[in-house]
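DM from R.C. (forwarded with permission)

"hey, sorry to bug you on a friday — could you get me a structure for this? deadline for the figure draft is monday and I only need the backbone to look sensible"
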Amino acid sequence: MRMKLLVAASATVFIAVIISAVVTQLTMTSASAANQPASTTTQTPIPVVDELAKQREATYQARLAEANQTIAQSQTELQKAQAAAAEIAQKYNDVVTTQANQPVATAVPARIVPAAALAIAQSLDPNVRLLQEATIVPYQNVDAYEFVFDRGTVYVAATNGDVLSNTIVPPTVGNDSNRPPRGDRPDRPRRNRNQP
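My reply, with the result:
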């Protein structure tokens, strides 16, 4: 029983100490809150803040004036550039108009004569016979003389005499140059060996 009394007394003392600490804390907080509004109302604005605001305003005005001056210079330079571009365009138009009014000289490409082209073509095979007159035809986007011979066709460039194509079939041993090619001969009837 003594133990119970001792525990109860300890708990009571503990609770009393906590209550007194809470009450003390509350009274100190309310006293400091009451003193604080009085101290803030007595403060006056610091002149440093006004000075900073004036410096910022002056800096802003200086930068604004500088930007306006830069814009004015840019507009002047733009007007000068537009005037120069208009002058160049006028000069260009004058040159184009002058050139359009002048007659245009057309250059005729130089060509070799057909006899020279024929000599070049016949030099490939002197035994060929020309079947038709030479004509100028476009061969792979180049003007060329076309020579049709009995054993093929030759294309010779009309401007410089280069041989562009040669399809002349040379004669082989045992072939008669006057004999028609095998494809041009008539077919002979074949006999069936199984027939009597």
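R.C.: lifesaver. The first helix runs from residue 2 to 41.
me: no worries. The mean pLDDT is 80.
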